[in-house]
Give the backbone structure.
Amino acid sequence: MNGKRMQLFRNHAVAWLYLLPAVFVFALFNYYLMLQGFFVSFFRFSIMKPPGDFVGFDNFVRMFSDPQLWRAFVNTLEFVGISFLFGFWGPIALAILINEVRHFKAFFRTAYFIPAIAPGVAILVLWKYIWQPDYGLANHIISFFNIPPQLWLNDVALVKWVMLFPGLIIVGGFNFLIYLAAVQSISTELYEAASIDGAGIWSKLRHIQLPGIAPVVGMMVILQFIGGMQIFDQPLIMTGGGPAGASETVIMYAFNTAYTGNDFGYAMAIVVTLFVVLMLFSYIQLRLQRTE
Amino acid sequence: MALITDNEYKMKKNKVTYGVIVAALSVGIIVQIFPFIWLISSSLKGVTDIFELPPRLIPKTFHFENYAQVFELLPLGRYFYNTMFIAALTIVLQIGVSTLAAYSLSKLKPLYGRAVLLFFLATMMIPEGATIIPRYLMMIDFPVTGGSLINSPWSLILPGAAWAWPIFLMKGFFDGLPNELFEAMKVDGASRLRTLFSLLVPLSKPIFAICILQTFLGVYNQFIIPLVMMPDSKQWTLMVAIYNMQASGNFGWHLIMVLLVISTIPLLVAFLFAQKYLVQGISMTGLKG
């Protein structure tokens, strides 16, 4: 009896040995990292002599009376809204359409996926060039429609739309592949049966395909929201937050507060709060999905 | 067969609908490709041509020397080396750590294994933007050992090991491997380590290919973190170099376009190699479910 228990213990111990490297790096670079960040938010953090003066919840309270932060927050929400308008439906529509193709499906799939391979930074810089008001392609193209040249990235009203526009063009990518797999996994008999019952294309779309991919779509909504709330690369590369703070996002504001303003404590307070908000949102979303 | 079933396809009016779909998709391809054509065209323009109005699609003269010029002006070899060094080591570390963990969770079944899996997966909910500043603070004064990892590629490589996605993918894949094979190894008296290397690894080539590809893509595209962690120009990665060049205002657009074209090539190569594993992998993860 003792020998068997020893054997069991040994088995589990060895299994844990294999887990240890991963557990160690995760504990250090994820959990400890966030704890350290959380810790810093309670201080007027000083790089010279860490951690600096303890200020309790001051950093958090300060967030409520910071107009620039609120502006960044509203901007970020606008970005999220636009990203759902532009970037969300494209891959789904594309997956549905490509699913219909009978010959050369692989060709279409590849042709749409390849443009998504270009490095994100490269795409952003390319479009920064295209949106150049003086010599860029965009103003040239709209001149064909007799629309006067625009300031694009320098236009307070247009800048967010302009910044996310490339996302509308590039519909292929990993999201598209995931949707394609989801659509393709729907049993073809369902279409046959519906067809026999006299269902048209739109009806099949609404009653078979969309419900069929709904779980995947639900998951992507959460991911898109979380990603959208943290948009930072686009404004950093294309406008640096301008014009007049119109494209400054929450993360960008926190970033500048830390590196330019040297106020890591406040920056971390912002980041921690965002983290909590996103966690709450994801949790609520998941609960809602489960009850459906 | 899908929205237009095989029987319906025979009807003329549905053939028209089908034709419209294919036409729309084909036009869409042109729209997708067009920015890249513009990119390549711009990279071959002369220093004044890029400002000329109206902008033309095909450059007046092809300035192939732009490419040579960029190589002369910038230590591209250095940037490329920096990027690849970080990518290679991150991949080795991450795949190594993840394989051991996934092997354990899937085949060795440790106690509290489910809790550990949750421990790993929960980290995927941490928004990336939230980690930039804490990571910087951690690298300035690294815990326990002290010292700074700023301007060291290890500031990117070490945290790169802690990504839950490969563990999740691998575990899913390993779970799908028939247990009889592993039983047979056990009966033969093979150690767990030997089972790992001589049975599991050879069988798991598709999932390794996917994980390696995704990690490579992630590291290659990383831009904010290397920008913050390694400001020294000798340590720049390709993406950081691109950002700094276009932000400096001194580097002509035509040369920047050259940089962009060059930076796309390694990814194209990587994807052409791994194309077939990708679609296989997506269906394997069961995400379609």
Q: What stands out?
A: Chain B is about 70% helix and 0% strand. Chain B touches chain A through 98 residues (CB under 8 Å). The mean pLDDT of chain B is 87. Residues 81 and 237 of chain B are 8 Å apart (CA to CA).
